[in-house]
Amino acid sequence: xxxxxxxxxxxxxxxxxxxxxxxxxxxxxxxxxxxxxxxxxxxxxxxxxxxxxxxxxxxxxxxxxxxxxxxxxxxxxxxxxxxxxxxxxxxxxxxxxxxxxxxxxxxxxxxxxxxxxxxxxxxxxxxxxxxxxxxxxxxxxxxxxxxxxxxxxxxxxxxxxxxxxxxxxxxxxxxxxxxxxxxxxxxxxxxxxxxxxxxxxxxxxxxxxxxxxxxxxxxxxxxxxxxxxxxxxxxxxxxxxxxxxxxxxxxxx
Length: 253
Known about the structure:
Largest sheet: 6 strands, mixed
């Protein structure tokens, strides 16, 4: 369980994020929604210690600030929105996910190789393992990076805009992968701009506006309070009960 209390982040003496109380459990998908500048990425960067913060972040009752880098990597891992394409193969990239567990030698053991292979299978990039990243489509590259963070075997995965630049087919694959990870008891927090995607896949949503939490709730609870959605996005959300649809929610004026 991740527990956040009185989390505050400021840049140049201006507060850009405040979260009074939030819990995040394994086996749960949470989407963080809001307009640009709402503080969504700042929340995830705080959880991954990429930005300074005040307040408390506890992972399984342990203070995040007191965990070593290796211990943090075992508990929580962050995948930013922008990934470059280094001159390496897919398998080499995925292998980097094991580095926090290898010590200074960085020598992969049989167990590490098994974990790497399973991560590539889970993200459908095993057949691409010898290909170089700059040879891949954006969807394939996204799945390769996702395989890398899965290979860390961290309990919690933080994803920043994982659907950006993905076509419909790649988005469907991503949804399948994330739901399977949830079944494996991973906790997943995503920054998402695609509201129908967020509402369809999430157990809970966090709505941020100018660094403040406007509402935390299930998709059903969000639908019951459309005013907060209109205030932030100037649109609402409607549920469509049709099992043939990929998204069970649509945007309405």
